[in-house]
Amino acid sequence: MSKDIIRLSGVIKNSIVDGPGFRLTVFCQGCPHHCEGCHNEKTWDFDGGFDGKVEKIINVAKSLPLLQGLTFSGGEPFCQAEAFAELGRLAHENGYNVVTYTGYTYEKLLEGADKHPEWMDLLKQTDYLIDGRFILEEKSLMLKFRGSRNQRIIDVKKSLESNQIVENYDI
């Protein structure tokens, strides 16, 4: 893929469950994690879904007057990190915040950034990262913006600046 095209499973306008405020949630197609109990199994197949232009997605966001941010979900956004980083850059240029969901841990993303520099690009365009695989045994419906207790909400900017993980559950 290129930085201009995202393989999509779908897009939801004005979501209130995928981050703070009204959000445009972009579900990418393709996921290597295959978590037991995943609520989005249809996104696993890398050959499924359809292509969407990054420019068209940001234009949809700009057409929603109450929108506060974009959420990148999946599938696994870091499997298409270059295009999601570009979408994140455009989101920030237009005054939106960015939440990214990933089955990888923050630590794994940092470790892999040498081999996958596009991962760091996406991290730098992410305000809040919800990290970690969904674990069915740790599932809780009481968690804000998370499916299982092992998942964290990480303030990426503060974490990168301080070189340590800064969690924030008050977003």
Automatic annotation (TrEMBL):
Cofactor(s) demanded: [4Fe-4S] cluster
Catalytic activity from the UniProt record: glycyl-[protein] + reduced [flavodoxin] + S-adenosyl-L-methionine = glycin-2-yl radical-[protein] + semiquinone [flavodoxin] + 5'-deoxyadenosine + L-methionine + H(+)
Superkingdom per UniProt: Bacteria
Entry keywords, A to Z: 4Fe-4S, Iron, Iron-sulfur, Metal-binding, Oxidoreductase, S-adenosyl-L-methionine
InterPro entries reported in the protein's UniProt record: Aldolase_TIM, NrdG, Organic_radical-activating, Radical_activat_CS, rSAM, rSAM_sf
One family name in Pfam for this protein: Fer4_12
Keyword Translocase: no
EC number annotated for this UniProt entry: 1.97.1.-
Keyword Metal-binding (UniProt): yes
PANTHER family in UniProt: ANAEROBIC RIBONUCLEOSIDE-TRIPHOSPHATE REDUCTASE-ACTIVATING PROTEIN, PYRUVATE FORMATE-LYASE-ACTIVATING ENZYME
Family: Belongs to the organic radical-activating enzymes family.
Function per UniProt: Activation of anaerobic ribonucleoside-triphosphate reductase under anaerobic conditions by generation of an organic free radical, using S-adenosylmethionine and reduced flavodoxin as cosubstrates to produce 5'-deoxy-adenosine.
Protein name per UniProt: Anaerobic ribonucleoside-triphosphate reductase-activating protein
Source organism of the structure: Ruminococcus intestinalis
Gene responsible for this protein: nrdG
